[in-house]
Amino acid sequence: MNSHCSLVLCTCPDQATAESLARTIIESSLAACVNLLPGVQSIYRWEGRVESSAEILLLIKTARRCLPELEECIRTNHPYEVPEIIALDITSGYVAYLDWVLSSTLPDFSNDF
CA-based Rg of the chain, rounded to a whole angstrom? Predict the structure, then answer.
């Protein structure tokens, strides 16, 4: 099954940023649903040093066709210089849910021409 849906992972530095970004994404119809998972501890290398931060993980369910606009939205509205934006193809799932994801995001106008 090819669902045409993606799961995008994005971390945010705090709850307020995560909620604001999630709301912007949903209001822009760039995703059907965003889950906010608090309590994520990230350990990473940044500018040659090992860093550690408490973060909020966003699980963004979207249509694959929305990925370019979603990436631009995150980059524009995110406080990090290099925000985490990782898109994973959803290869299977409950068809009714995946249909809802597709119908809840920006329409596909590629077949209109």
Answer: 15
